[in-house]
Amino acid sequence: xxxxxxxxxxxxxxxxxxxxxxxxxxxxxxxxxxxxxxxxxxxxxxxxxxxxxxxxxxxxxxxxxxxxxxxxxxxxxxxxxxxxxxxxxxxxxxxxxxxxxxxxxxxxxxxxxxxxxxxxxxxxxxxxxxx
Length: 131
Ligand SMILES: N[C@@H](CCC(=O)N[C@@H](CS)C(=O)NCC(=O)O)C(=O)O
Fold this sequence. Notes:
It holds the Pfam family GST_N_3. GO terms for molecular function: glutathione transferase activity; maleylacetoacetate isomerase activity. By secondary structure, the protein is of the alpha+beta class. It has a single domain, classed as Glutaredoxin (3-Layer(aba) Sandwich). It is built from five helices and four strands, in the order βαβαββααα. The chain has a four-stranded mixed β-sheet with strand order 2-1-3-4, with helices on one face. Helix 1 runs parallel beside helix 3. The radius of gyration is 15 Å and the shape is globular. The structure holds glutathione (GSH).
């Protein structure tokens, strides 16, 4: 198994995938993509044509869109389960996911761009995982 997650440390969309990989106890390689233009390089566009992270590559199979990646991981590596079985609980989990993607994150984009301009070390992947 060769799982590679293309990500940026400060990206909430990346983090939901990163956390899922950790929770499922999967072995994976993390590749930091600097969102200062690196996402437009042809080698990354070959994996993620819309120049977005996260992108997951599993043994040559490319998956983009964080929720699609979570769905893929849940189907392929079902234990431990990351989603509830109960219909109402599942609806709540899906609502939280979709509201986050469709409403909350777009609303924070302007703010995050300002932070990244003022603290380019974040943009350059300066954040280091400590544990
Ligand atoms: N709907 C996508 C959104 C992905 C997305 O917007 N990623 C941002 C970082 S959080 C990105 O890659 N921005 C760089 C760009 O668009 O060039 C998902 O859930 O994966």
